[in-house]
Amino acid sequence: MLKLKGEHIFLRALEPEDLDFLYELENNPEIWEISGTTTPYSKHILRYYLDNAHKDIYEVKQLRLSICNLEGTLIGLIDLFDFDPQNLRVGMGIVVSEVANRNQGIGAEAIVILCNYVFSVLGLRQVYANVLEGNEASIHLFAKMGFEKVGIKKDWISTGGKFKNEILFQKINKG
Fold first, then answer.
1. What is the domain partition of the chain in residue ranges?
2. 119 φ, ψ to 5°?
3. Signal peptide span per the entry (predicted)?
4. Least confident window among 59-63, 100-104, 114-118
5. Model pTM?
6. How confident is the model at residue 171 (pLDDT cuts 50, 70, 90)?
7. How far apart are the C-alpha atoms of 61 and 126, rounded to whole Å?
8. Which of 22, 88, 103, 153 has the most beta carbons within 10 angstroms of its beta carbon?
9. 96: exposed, middle or buried (Cβ count in 10 Å: 0-12, 13-18, 19+)
C-alpha cells in the first residue's frame, strides 16, 4: 500500500505492531456508540483482523488505514466501509484517539487525503458519512470538508436506553 501523504500526516496500511493501539481504541467504551461496538475485542480477534487486513477493498468491501504524524506515530484511524463499486460509493469514518490531538487539523487532512484517493484511484462518485446528532465536532468537520447534510435517520442508534438520530452527509465528486 502506498503512503498517502499530506503536509502534517500520512495514511498507511495497518501493521502487526498496531495491535496494542487497535486493542485500546476498539475497547474504549467512549467510542462504542459511534463504532457500533457492543462488546470488547480480544487481542486474539484483533490479531486475526490484522492478519487479514491486507485483503483488497474489492474483496472485503472495506479499508482501514492508520493516521500517523510525520514522525510515524499512530494517532488515529480512518475507514472506508460499505464499498459499493456498482454504485460508485463508499462510507467513511474517522477517529483521532487522543483528545489532545483533536481540533488540530488532523481529521481534516486525513479526509482530504482519503477523498482524493477515493475519487482519483478508486474512481468513485461519492463518499458518505454517518454522524450522530449532537456530535458537533464531527458535524463541523464533515461540513467544513465539503460534505453536504442530506438527511436525518430518525431514532437510528440505540444507546443507554435512548434512541439518537444520525445525520447522513455526502460528498459527490462532480468532476
1. 4-132
2. -80, -40
3. none
4. 100-104
5. 0.89
6. very high
7. 15
8. 22
9. buried
